[in-house]
Protein 1
Amino acid sequence: MRLKIRITGLIQGVGFRPFVYRLAEEIGLNGYVLNDTAGVLIEVEEQKEKLNEFLIRIEKEKPPISKIYSLQHSFLEEAGFKGFEIRKSDETGDKRASVLPDIAVCEECLNEVTNPKDRRFIYPFTNCTNCGPRFTIIQSLPYDRKNTSMKVFKMCPDCEKEYTLSTDRRFHAQPDACHICGPWISLYDCEGKLLCEKNDALEKVTNLMRKGYIIALKGMGGYHLICDATNEEVVGRLRKKKHREEKPMAVMFPDLEAVKAEAYINPLEERALNSIEKPIVIVRKRGSTSLADSVSPDNTTVGVFLPYTPLHNIILKKLKKPVVATSANITDEPIAKDEADAFERLSKIADYFLSHNRDIVRRCDDSVVRITAERQAPIRRSRGFAPMPVVMPFKFNKPVLALGPYMNNTVAVGIDDKVFISQHIGDLDTPLAIEFYEETIKDFLKLFDIRPKVVVSDMHPGYYSTKYGEKHFKDKLFKVQHHFAHILSCMIENDVPEDAEVIGFAFDGTGYGIDKTIWGGEVLTASYKKFKRMFHLRPFRLIGGDKAVKEPCRTAFSLLFESFGDEVMGMDFIALTMQERLFFLNMLKKNINSPVTTSMGRLFDGISSIISLRHKTSYHAQAAIMLEQCAIRSQETDSYPFIIENDIIDYRPLIREVVKDLKSEKPKETIAKKFHNTIVEIIINISEFSRKETGISTVALSGGVFQNTILLENAFNKLKDKGFIPLIHQLVPPNDGGISLGQAVYSQFLIDG
């Protein structure tokens, strides 16, 4: 009897075919296994009992990093197979196989790298079927060496033996290599002069870092700018050169114990740090730390991660110090991924370049997560996670392309029952970022062999992503409201049934509303097909439009004017000159360049300025982050008053009480915490009212404001205590990085199908 098995999932590049080969040999089956563009195809022959055993054990004993989405099988007439073989991949047909993300180096490979007796001792590109690069080296499906950037490196006899030996863990490991036959590293000065290579380069670069130099290091998905994280002078110099004034920079540590010496780590954070994805994890700093103050200035937290490639491990082990490891770019530009780009853009930042000759097919920044509400919440979804699909509870009627938003952009493609989400692209406000955006769209359509029948963008007419859709896909283009997309992404990743509704809180900085104003403090009732705007923050004006985003003192003045009228002119705590106040007052009264908004993000900014935490910002959401940092230091449980009337959340009573507390010299920490408590109370109050009106008990929390751990944890826990089912993000970020998923989901429920 012959058994035919079709498997889809994360099964290419994880040692699945070698696993099947060994299992078939052990049971005594004849047949074959191969990769194709859809996944893995297996045919085996023997007695029915052995075939059933094989079928059961495939699912039970599969490689630990693999993931089966579907396994279809049928019993057929014998074909007369002799022995068992791994056949050449079939490259015909639609490309539906999942591309595995890049995976951190495994312990077995690390043991080899650190063993002086092993032939791969201090080899920076050591990998096996259980680890190593995938997404950043694959050029096309199926995942075979000839379809990767490793194709230019011919395996030596020893590597070839490993690759072809079924009992070896490098059996069909596509990036397999060693000192003799694989890629190597080279050290250059900032003018591009070759200084040394291979092991000499490792020794030299470590010494240079000890002396306080900045290194541009080519890693797995692009370049890092690295330097000694304990050296204040070099970290300050890196900030100045990179034009990154105050935004915290991530720190890579030699090992977990080194992290624990500088930060408080709970078990969930430890698990995230040690995971195969090795993301940057936001953790709380210890009171006393050896890190330079400028690593994470005026911040109680720091982003930490562990080495995820052999190269990083070797350097950190030699240095025995933590290093700043920040994206190699000028702020707001994409990371550099090849030598020409790196030297052109980074020669005035880096003192030296540690490069290698394995091409990076696509750039992929580090992922960032935070543990909140006892869950791992993504902040930036990229290396280690992209392009792993989100599996749908339905199949798409038509292939879809989702173009994402303006900030924290990702794009996505939807086909069959999966949405493949791109790596982090970033804000679309520089020519290089736009080039990366367009490159990613073309790459995804080609990689997954998709010709979209439906394209979905944001409604905002000024977003580059919207304009791109109008230019290239006008006849196929649909637009979805920004905050509805937020809620849809939260619903789908929490498996909300197709016929269900949720109460959705979409709190963020900005989004284009259906009334053509700037939304951002929205409460919706939503199904997959439609939404209704139930409540929103009382509108106020952004003085100078986008300038108010970078200057929260403008928002503070606007909020105070809404709450006190002309009395605002005499308030001595406002960080504005009298001339500025008169100018802004005139703008507000005459509606000059002061667009209306309901933004919750801007409310956080305004409160931060009112209590003199931050009047101007150097990076996105800095004022709100400082407000959260301030609130963390308080145990206050009280809250401020607010009014909910008709569909308006009126913040004016809150503002008046904040001013009263300021005048009575209440600590800033107390005010900040009371403000956070108030927003939680607003969520609970509206949820209870909405449940009475609609019968809906499921509450979705989405939007960038919910990256605030105080807000999210308290809202989540109180909603649970009140009998609600709160939904939060765990697969995609709550910020605009998750918008493309919501857009893709929207396409399935368009009225015309």
Protein 2
Amino acid sequence: WVWRGEVWLKRTMGGDGDGHPDGEPKRKEKLEGFAFWESIGRPKFVLAPMVDQSELAFRMMTRKHGVNLTYTPMLHSRLFVENPKKYKKENYESDPADKPCFVQFCGDDPETLLAAAKMAEKDFDAVDINLGCPQNIAKRGHYGAFLLEENDLLRRIVSTLHDGLSCPVTCKIRKVNSHNFQDTLNLAYDLQAAGCSVICLHGRTKEEKGHHTRIADWEAIKILKGRMDIPVIANGGVETYDDAIKCLEQTGVDAIMSAEGLLENPALFSGNTVSVDDLAAEYITFAEKYPPVQKGAVKSHLFRMLHPKLQVHTDLRAKLGKSHSFAEYKAVADEMRSRTMGPHHSQTGWYRRYRKNEPPRSGSRPTDHSSVPVSHAGASAAEQPQGRAEATEEEEGGEEEEGGDVSTVERESKRRCPDPNPCLAQRGEAWAAEG
């Protein structure tokens, strides 16, 4: 608490905490906290940072459907600094039309993070620090949610970026643990005191992922919102537009962030009914206009949007898995549209693959606005149980947890080298370094 008070006093009254001779506080040169939030239009609906999935094409598409703040995919600060030209070419996308947008970095070294952020700050409205990635690659690389208990290090990181950048610093975190929320509050206090302007809390711990996913803790987010003096974004548990509104009302947060909900339904925040066939076709159009630097992004998005249908039309699932061009993607999407007709209610969407028994937050199941799968012979999906086998990881291109933290590097490495030791040389510089 003494440290937090000293930092606050220095930033309010001047570098030495004594203020100016005339007694006037030092004027800040950049907007922070709520002043910054006002300057970017007080956004309500936010697209989460997702590795290989919150690329420019998807960001622009979701903006058309109600998103008013986007994040880039997570960028690795060390790799960015070591070879910025190569790393930017393979991972970096910005556009003046994509505003406001925060660029997200991961890492554990304050100076490296600052060096990377300074090369990107001119293209974005803020720099976000990834403290939410729960994946094993983050554990090996010592970043993301595996830093949540290292308050001293995180204070240094945020303070270094706050003092060294011309734009605000923000943080995306998870609950530190499931047994003592005070630990999460203490971390948030430290981040705020160190200079964090916006904080996003995912209402789950790093252990609550995949098949261990639990209902997001909105009550914890509500408590955090009541304690912070900066804008708070809620993340987790938003499957429908009604969920988003309920979360805003229940927690009092400044904005709602979605990852997996938007992957399944990019029009989630519009509140409108849009068929998955139309969404898939629209995404392909955006991807042609803003070609993703990560070539697998288009395929991954189509697998998620078309997930309910692909569980039945397994031949098209396999065909999509082998597609590599826009013409091939369009052919799969067009064939899927031609085989199916009529809206239906479904619980088989991408969002619910790990949440089939989870009760809906807003009182009713979401409507899956895809169409009833129909075979060539006209049989309904219910009459074709043999067609409902789950897609393989290779066909669907891996999986994206909410928060988006499974990298292409790791997925490719697992497929090519199931044994980590003899195949290390094949994994590429980034994967080898993290391993």
Protein 3
Amino acid sequence: MATILEESGFDPNADLKIVGTNPVKHDGLDKVTGRAKFGADAFLPGMLVGKILRSPHAHAIIKSIDTSKAEALPGVKAVITRDDFPEKKQGTGPGDMTRNAMAREKALYDGHPVAAVAATSEKAAKKALKLIEVDYEVLPHVIDPVEAMQPDAPILHDYMRTKGAETDEDKPTNVTERMVTQLGDIDEGFEEADVIVEQSFDSKPMHQGYIEPQGCIADYSEDGQVELWCCTQAPFVYRDRLSAILDIDCNKINVQQSELGGGFGGKTGFYGEPIAILLSKKASRSVKIVLSRIEVFRGTGPVSGTSYTIKMGCKKDGTITAAQAEMVFQSGPYTGSMYFNAPNAMFTRYDLKNVDIVAYEVVSNRQKVNSFRAPCVPQIVFGVEGVIDEMAKKIEMDPLDFRLKNAAGDGHTTIYGDTWGPVGFIETIKKAKECEHYNTPVKEGEGRGISTGFWFNRGGETAASLNLAPDGTVTIAIGTADVAGSRISISMMAAEELGIPVDQVRVKMADTNSLGFNRVTAGSRTTFSVGVVIVDSARQCIAELRSRAAEIWDVPEDGVVFEEGKCRPASSNVGDFEPLSINDICKQTTMSHGAICGHAEMNVTGAGPGFAVNIVDTKVDEKTGRADVTRYTVIQDVGKAIHPQQVEGQIQGGAIQGVGWALNEEYIYGEDGRLQNAGFLDYRMPVASDVPMVDTIMVEVPNPAHPFGLRGVGEVPVVPTMAAVGNSINDAIGIRPTSLPMSPPKLLELIEQAKADGTYKG
């Protein structure tokens, strides 16, 4: 379907009045005063408290579950187990989602749900959980992804065979898929190289670090209608997936979004929601489930752990001739790590002719992974940029010059087949070379590291509505979650297009019954995609405003133009009419001709990739192994910053999350396969004193596919971070860390080994 926006893109000569400024966020006051309603804030009269019983074993057959004592407890209104879920075939999407929501044949990780209760009080619900008797047959488990690939490893699923692997053996495996990505002739590339560097790396699973635990209320009515209130990045995806696993028609499930206290990809998969629905169905009462912090760690999805080897070669002039990688990604008990992002993104910012990548996804007895900013890419870039730094050192070339030598630019065709329009990678490197941080001498005892990063950015299915009220104010309904302040940016784009003040626009998050399908809020797609749809909707409204102004003046429609928020005669030949504002027109015609509104839904394309360069200074305490980041600068191509303060916050937040991932954050499992640090008392996230002020330099190379030139900014900031920190540590002490996180015990061990070898630089 053709749209009004179809032939329109960014006008670099446009005189923008609102876009590029920093108005106060419309939702800011509610959030700082506590009026904003988050997942746990929802309340329905007579609602029950839901609690989940979780497996204490990493791998165990569930022989039987006896809930009779719990059901007999006063105050308990419903108990559910695997038997309450519709049967879905193993190894399918619905089958895996069902079994992750509630264990069926086996418990596959510590924290896997095995039963749930709904009771009139939290005390009664907790007591009921203790009365449920589960007979487990404990099985050997495997956590490490490389160990899971070994022939003698415990097998999680008898049905699993490796997709993409050529083998005559029909035996179960823990390897879900093998992906091969190739370009050119890798052997020829290494033959051309004067320098070859090969290193192995690994990373541990880590938590997204959102502040708000998952929470929801489900109300299953007598006629089979489901109302679900929850904190989610994916309301429409939730609806469709819940329909698939619970055998409920999509039109009977209405998902209403609450405010979101952080997500970063971690709230794209559901956890308590299907359980709450079935408990509500059984109890004939609404049921509320709010996960504790420990449950968040034990029962939701962290970032994929990895083990991989990077091999690269270059000429003496700095030209990279070959890049090779073999990677293993840990997915938890079911497929879904999004590992395929890594082969497509890891080398993509560089113009390489010979590439060979093999990637494996492997199941293991830990929580099913979920997304995190730029899923599966940052932990791999840690190794790629480390190897690039080593090559630059060997040929004695400035690390930024080395990267600039190989940088891909406009017109580059990627390994995944896209050809880039205007992009800003080269510009970010040049800006980094010019910046004050890079040209300031490194302090005594510190090291400096740089790294670069890339993310595809995304578009996808998006729907929204824009409605003009009789007083000329504007209400926008969107179906995407606001995870990072997108409402103010959307308001600004609508206000810019309509020529009205931004405080006359309000954006509301609609439920799934009110709009067409919207893809998940993730992948740096939301502000870009909704912006395209909203501008199209605004232009529909403008067309109608012109039509009504023409009717009021009794002139042809082409005799009316819309400028600066008003309809005006196109020329003096049309007539001498006073301009009509949106308010004027709506006030005169709404009652007689109906409301003026615009609505658009489209599969938005043209997102345009994002790039960043990080410059990091770090000091390492040789006595403790503690690394402290002392200075941090991010240079990032943002296309066009709609709300510069908001963009800066996104960049700074990503960098800080990356510092945590670089230096401290990891899931630690005991020999029994149980998670040892399930909570912020034991899981070390960065606090304000751990990081300096993150300086930002925004490069604006407009994306021509967007009416205001923007690119997504949320994923890119975290991609280069760990590599930049690792390179700075290497520069400080002459040791190359190869394992994430680069925590004090790991660094101290490396320092002591280097001292023993006589290679310590510090």
